[in-house]
Amino acid sequence: MTTNRHLFSTLTLAAGLSLAALGNSASAQDDVTIIEFTQTGCQFIGSEGGVDHGYMPSRKADCENINGQTQDERLGDESTLHLEPGKYIFRVTNTDVPYMLGFYLRSESVLDRPFLPSVSGGGLHQGVTQDYVIELEEGEYVYSCPLNITPDYKLVVGEG
User: Fold this and answer.
1) Cα(8)–Cα(11) distance, integer angstroms
2) Judging by DSSP bridges, how do beta strands 153-157 and 119-124 pair with one another?
3) In what order do the strands lie in the sheet with 81-83?
4) What is the mean pLDDT of residues 113-126?
5) Distances in Å between the alpha carbon of 66 and those of 11, 31, 61, 95?
6) CB 150 within 8 A of CB 52
7) H, E, C per residue of 113-129
8) 67, 122, 66, 133: which is closest to 94 by C-alpha?
9) Looking at domain 9-157, which CATH architecture does it have?
10) What does the pLDDT look like over 35-92, one tens digit per residue?
11) Residue-range domain boundaries for the chain
């Protein structure tokens, strides 16, 4: 199984290990993996092989147009993130988008949405980082920003 560690900055914390030793102020009570995402205009950089396409949207509609024209050529199977079931913190940063962003992780299948966990939230103004905590079960998910109109990036947990 591939974990795409070259695409995402991850950090696994053992039970009881203090995050303070790693430069953070909280502490981990259980094994948790932190996955850091950087959002910029119309994309998550790590989800596209670390390439910042340099899009400079001034509003949500700009990303609808940009991704409508370019996402098929930008995304492929290699952009799928593979993880094991378990506890995760998705740490999302808005680096340079001048309007509020968010994060939405959910089942890829609308039929499975009532049965698989999801997490979402907004409030990511320019320069803000926010954590989204979730315990993922085996299944196929997608994540995106509905406020920045990013593509739906694929996430497979377990065998998928």
Assistant:
1) 10
2) unpaired
3) 81-83, 153-157, 139-144, 101-107, 119-124
4) 93
5) 32, 38, 9, 19
6) no
7) CCCCCCEEEEEECCCCE
8) 122
9) Sandwich (2.60)
10) 999 999 999 999 998 999 999 999 889 999 999 999 888 887 667 999 999 999 999 9
11) 9-157
| 10 pLDDT higher than 90 | no
The two structure tokens encoding residue 141: 């998910």
Nearest one of 138, 73, 152, 78 to 108, comparing CA atoms: 152
Query: What's the rounded mean pLDDT across residues 133-144?
Result: 96
Per cent of the chain over pLDDT 70 is 79
Backbone angles phi, psi at 93, to 5 degrees: -120, 135
Query: Do β-strands 86-94 and 129-136 pair in parallel, antiparallel, or remain unpaired?
Result: antiparallel
Nearest to 150 by CA among 42, 59, 68: 42
∠ Cα 38 117 114 (to 5°): 130
What token pair was written down for 116?
């698989």
Cβ(113)–Cβ(68) under 8 Å?
no
**Can you read off the two tokens belonging to residue 120?**
């979402």
Identify the pLDDT of residue 121: 94
Instruction: Give helix then strand counts, H and E, for the chain.
Output: 1, 10
The amino acid occupying position 159 is E
